[in-house]
Design a protein that fits this description.
This protein is mostly helical. It has a domain of about 180 residues. It is about 65% helix and about 0% strand.
């Protein structure tokens, strides 16, 4: 192969190689797809995702046709494998919003540092009525990462450092009736610090979704947009009390802070609230950058 041909191939394949580096974790995902329907609000913000990945894959098909003319079979076979990886990535990303929504219905909000294979794996466990396994795994995950989470929060929001310190102490001392309401107030607090919008402030014109979503939906990163799914839908933590019968659990901010729920003080519920606090910390970080 001539040097100019080699350079041409390198140049044309560079965008895909960059995509492969960014998305390599997603190759672990299984390729089965669970069909689901986007809500109107999801559809409004997610319409560009499929097109983005289509644009990544189409040039590879075009490149295959050009390579065939050079009769460079080994490279062409490798390129075909890359194309298959891209298709599997797209299929699994299509499924991820459904999995994230299922997890939020049980009070869990996966942060952006979790392994990228877990949303769909955990979603499949929920659909198999194995929520106990999901709870066990996620409790262990957030217990193991508790120090890291609160260190990051204290660095990001130094004016709230003492509050986070006392939340961590209350949780470790199993004072969950104290830790949970304070965590919920700080979720509003960090959203206000970063956007001047609150999380639990909901308005009719925003379909009663968290006020902060009006800011976060401006994030351009397609992967991060997928992770917005839990707050672009109603879930048990933000739902109106009259709608709680629609959800499998009753962990609800309004019932806790208004004194209706007298049984919320469990370790699992405290960790679920910490998962939401960490999740919002990560989303806000992407929003600001």
């Amino acid at each position: 192969m001539k040097n100019e041909d080699s350079e041409w191939i390198k140049k044309v394949t560079e965008p895909y190689r960059q995509m492969q580096k960014q998305m390599e974790k997603f190759t672990k995902l299984q390729s089965k797809v669970m069909p689901f329907q986007f809500t109107p609000i999801q559809q409004e913000y997610f319409t560009g995702i499929n097109e983005s990945f289509k644009k990544m894959i189409d040039p590879i098909k075009e490149l295959q046709n050009s390579i065939a003319k050079l009769n460079f079979t080994p490279f062409q076979e490798s390129l075909s494998q890359f194309k298959d990886i891209g298709i599997r990535i797209k299929e699994n990303l299509d499924k991820m919003p459904h999995s994230l929504k299922l997890l939020a219905n049980y009070g869990w909000f996966l942060d952006l540092e979790t392994d990228s294979s877990f949303p769909n794996e955990l979603g499949e466990l929920i659909e198999s009525n194995e929520i106990e396994k999901v709870n066990e795994y996620l409790m262990e995950y957030y217990i193991d990462n508790l120090e890291h989470i609160f260190d990051d929060l204290s660095i990001k929001y130094p004016d709230r450092k003492e509050i986070f310190k006392q939340i961590k102490i209350a949780h470790k001392e199993k004072l969950f009736f104290i830790s949970i309401p304070t965590i919920l107030t700080q979720i509003d607090g960090i959203c206000y610090d970063s956007t001047t919008k609150k999380f639990f402030d909901k308005r009719k014109e925003n379909n009663y979704l968290p006020e902060v979503t009006t800011e976060l939906t401006n994030i351009s990163n397609s992967i991060v947009k997928i992770f917005l799914t839990p707050i672009l839908n109603q879930s048990t933590i933000i739902a109106h009390e009259k709608d709680l019968h629609k959800f499998p659990i009753k962990l609800n901010r309004n019932e806790i802070l208004h004194g209706v729920d007298k049984n919320y003080g469990t370790e699992m519920n405290s960790l679920k609230c910490i998962s939401l606090l960490k999740y919002m910390h990560d989303l806000l970080g992407d929003f600001e950058s």
